[in-house]
Amino acid sequence: MLYMEGDESMVQQLSDAELEIMKIVWGNPEEVTLFPYIMDGLAARGRPCQKNTLIVLLSRLMNKGFLSARKIGRRNEYTKLVSETEYQTTQTKNFLDKIYEGSAKGLVSNLIMGDLLTDEEYEELKKLLEKGKETP
């Protein structure tokens, strides 16, 4: 569920199992996602799930405000309410605040100095930083 803290909209954190489901939903090119699509997606990722377990996880995702469901006959159509980018941005900010006291420079420095980037990633990041500087 989205909630307000000060002026900032925050998104709740997901469990690993919930995140796996959301990755499948986010990756679906269709507007709505059906239960069998999620079951098949989990199996394809090597994370098969029992039907009842998936029902519970989908219910949690609805309670947290990530999904809505519409019953069509005997099936539910799930629609994402939080985009992957919105979730990533919120979790990145939380990580920065928690680990680097809000310092993006600290994170990037650690990535570079800790030799955690490939040469290609380093060059891409460098280009992004230069491009960002040029934008008015």
What does this protein structure show overall?
This protein has 136 residues and is an alpha+beta fold. The protein has 2 domains: 3-80, Winged helix-like DNA-binding domain superfamily/Winged helix DNA-binding domain (Arc Repressor Mutant, subunit A); 84-134, no CATH class. Helices cover 57% and strands 15% of the residues. The protein contains 6 helices and 5 strands. It has a 3-stranded antiparallel sheet with strand order 3-5-4. A two-stranded antiparallel sheet has the order 1-2. It is elongated, with a radius of gyration of 18 Å. Residues 1-8 have low confidence and may be disordered.
Short précis:
This protein has helices at residues 16-27, 35-44, 51-63, 84-100, 104-113, 119-134, and strands at residues 3-5, 8-10, 33-34, 67-72, 75-80.
Kindly identify the CATH topology of the largest domain.
Arc Repressor Mutant, subunit A
CATH hierarchy class name of the largest domain:
Mainly Alpha
> How many domains make up the coordinates?
2
Estimated helix fraction = 55-70%
Structural class: alpha+beta
- Walk across the major sheet and give the strand order: 3-5-4
Number of H/I helices: 6
Core attributes:
single chain, 136 residues, alpha+beta, Arc Repressor Mutant, subunit A, three-stranded antiparallel sheet, two-stranded antiparallel ribbon, 5 strands, 57% helix
Write the layout of secondary structure elements.
Layout: E1 3-5, E2 8-10, H1 16-27, E3 33-34, H2 35-44, H3 51-63, E4 67-72, E5 75-80, H4 84-100, H5 104-113, H6 119-134
Antiparallel strand pairs: 1-2, 3-5, 4-5
Helix pairs in contact: 1-2, 1-3
